[in-house]
């Protein structure tokens, strides 16, 4: 049974046939629809219209303020003055300001120390981007290859100024850079402490600061593509850049020069990878010598390290000498200076256009005053002799004969260019040297080098374990065991044990109860069942912790699968345990299984409807949840998808012992079950739902109890999942108004029951807000 409404089947049918309602869009846009367990059309007619919701993407109605809890803003009185408000504070992650350096780096404190080397969970933090960025192209190439290797990745965009939403950013990565597919793209939020994964990669000096706050990561890396201390006039930002190399990240560097700086100057763990080229666009064509010779000049004057002004002066000197040539400028749309010699400004070019340009010119001129860029290799691959600055950074990368080294003075540069213009033999020598240099380069090889470095660095403090390696034949004393932590379980616990020991299975199973100092009749009840195979282990109450105590209980069993119950969750049928264990066969890498919850007879209609709708939702979804699966009507990578992946309740669950051996429950005060499920799905395991393995379990909470639980939940969701709900009292009021409106629309509810439920709504939302408010204030105290 799910929510009962007064909407007629005829009205639902008429709406569906009208062509004015998009059920999939509506359910995906409004998160509460799926969780209600009722048909989207019924939901829209029941409450959606009252909240001013849109019926489809092309609906003429705009969302009103009370459209969804996340988007809602209060109408009427501004209210709820008893709720605290965060003081105004500048954006935490704004770059080009020293204020970002006030964020003190936090020590790594991951909840688990194992990872899947065949499918790492990788997080990137990048600055926002437009088209044509060389550094971004290298990042996105690595992302694409790592995706093809099987790794799970999320890109966080810091300070989004170019893009209006995350979908647009994802589309622009594909259109402007690389055809990524199953990569999550998100805007970086203010609070990042609850973001978890195997590793985070900072990609420039400004992204190191949020990365340094992600303490749930197992390792931090710094993708160093240049030495950014050289980017700024010596002063504040020089020191800020220098600071980022002293944060202790593991450095994965583009080339030997950066590797030597990170190792020798900063003492970092360092590995290097090579810049390469894309043979789809950069390859040799039929060589035609031009008269006058054509010079392809990377004239991105907006980037000072490209030393464009020196090149411009060298070309003017050549012109004054009477040397004939034509310059093909590229890299920016407006060069900003009148030139006396023959030239064409091509502006920003696509990779295909760049390849065509290189194949139709005679000499390539590109300067890098800091680390080398992609362009020399791309020119070499097209058979273009390259003129590059004679500097420590370029000498560390290019051997003699690969490029023509030009000392950084206009006259010396002009001499090198003139020699190449006048000597066909010299041009041919450099073509051959360049071809030899790029012959061993490929982006796939570089990505494999980066992958190996990430695995090596991650393995220093975490265990590499692939799921399939665990799923091997092993002898266990029992097929299954059941563990239950107890503390003052009362008479209800007798019913739980009675239902448990009468389970009908084809195999023997073990029952382990760990009690943490009960003072009621719980111990007597356990002893009543000692002859039925129920074992007891006692610990002091001071030693209890949800995750740690369950781990202790599991460690005292010797079964292939371990079911987990609570003292108030009664198996609903004699086949509960058999059905729970059978669900492990739903997939080839199922690490955990959970079942549904029925309500006790005293449950209120709202508790009953809520639980029934919740598990009807899971029954309608694929019963095996894993990273690559997207249920119908759900956005892959979105919040609903993430919640579907990590929902797990050890009121009624089971774990595969060999997975638990490597990934035990985290030792946290509350919510260990969902954190565990999130971790195993991130590592590539599956989680299954057993629709025929119900327990009876429900609670009717008082307002005080609801407030207490919701404060804990608010802290928990932000601390471990980075879910931030209401951020101010106006949003709190709007969420309560939304819930009250929804509940008032339920048919047949007595006024006193509705009034109590609406009081619970306020307690729940206000408690959740206070829990998150207090945690953010704790974090802010560490920021400065």
From TrEMBL:
Q: CDD domains under this entry? A: Glyco_tranf_GTA_type, GT4_PimA-like
Give TM regions.
none
Per UniProt, what is one GO molecular function of this protein? glycosyltransferase activity
> Domain of life, per the record?
Bacteria
Per UniProt, the keywords (alphabetical) are: Glycosyltransferase, Transferase
Which stretches does the entry tag as region Disordered? 57-88
The answer on whether this UniProt entry bears the keyword Glycosyltransferase reads: yes
Q: Which residues form the WsaF C-terminal domain?
A: 294-392
Q: Where is the Glycosyltransferase 2-like domain?
A: 482-593
Family according to the record: Belongs to the glycosyltransferase 2 family.
Q: Which named protein is this? A: Glycosyltransferase involved in cell wall biosynthesis
What lineage is this protein's organism placed in? Bacteria, Pseudomonadati, Pseudomonadota, Alphaproteobacteria, Sphingomonadales
